[in-house]
Amino acid sequence: MEENLRKTLEQGISAIDPTLLTDSLVKALVHLYDEITLFNPQYGLVNAQGYDLVVRHILDCLAPAPLMKANLADGKLRMADLGSGSGLPGLVLASAFPQWDITLVERMGRRAGFLRNTVAMMGMNARVHIVQKDLSEVQDSFDVVTFRAFRQFKDIISDLDRILVPGGRIFAYKSSEENIREEIDVANAYRPCVFKCGTIDYEVPMLDAKRRMLVVEKP
Questions:
Q1: pLDDT in tens, 191-214
Q2: How far, in Å, CA of 31 to CA of 20, rounded?
Q3: 3-class secondary structure, 149
Q4: Of the four listed, 98, 119, 163, 210, which is most buried by Cβ atoms within 10 Å?
Q5: Separation of alpha carbons 73 and 170, rounded Å
Q6: Is there a contact between 90 and 146 (Cβ–Cβ < 8 Å)?
Q7: Whole-angstrom distance, CA of residue 146 vs CA of residue 82
Q8: Are 23 and 65 in contact (CB under 8 A)?
Q9: Can you tell me whether residue 131 is helix, strand or coil?
Q10: What is the DSSP letter of 59?
């Protein structure tokens, strides 16, 4: 990562939460940036590079982390990131929450390979696991489920119910108000489980755009 982009990253982390600005977090996110930048031309991981990759993707994934933490119990939690692809947001959250046990679910072989390599480069093999499967094939259960630019609730709601433990929460990165309303309608209409839905508004440093996260709690 170029020095000017590293400064942008550090400024962004500090603006999100000054307590997050540690050498370990910066180092981890620089590694993630470098790996995405290296393999992006070959794998088509994300439609961004340079400043846009730092702000619109890495900082965007990190920005709601303090709000997520405030909605969760302290301690070691099991989190699944669905359709992890480039590791966004899974590896960003793994960097921010070193006490969590993280599973990255990615069905595409090349992208799963990218994730394995990147996890090794980031030194996270002991607590970040790659599952190369479709969501419908995942058998484990989790306290937290997250995803960004993944499939709509109407296609996955029963699988989300199946893998989420009672009391667990789904954090879905969303930007469209219309899309959020549609997802809430699906969750509210799902009868095997009475989900509790809410939203979290958050700001991304250096990005003038509305950001909102959908939070779904399983009773």
A1: 999 999 999 999 999 999 889 999
A2: 17
A3: coil
A4: 119
A5: 14
A6: yes
A7: 6
A8: no
A9: strand
A10: I
92 in Cβ contact with 59 (< 8 Å): no
Spatial CB neighbours of 152, under 8 Å, sequence gap ≥ 6: 182, 183, 186
φ/ψ (deg, to 5) at 103: -120, 125
pLDDT tens-place string over residues 26-59:
999 999 999 999 999 999 999 999 999 999 999 9
CA distance 48 to 203: 19
Cβ contact 121:35 at 8 Å: yes
Q: Kindly report whether the peptide bond that precedes residue 98 is cis, defined as omega within 30 degrees of 0.
A: no
Model's pTM, two decimal places? 0.95
| In the block, residue with structure tokens 């549609």 | 182
pLDDT digits (tens, 9 = 90+) for 81-122: 999 999 999 999 999 999 999 999 999 999 999 999 999 999
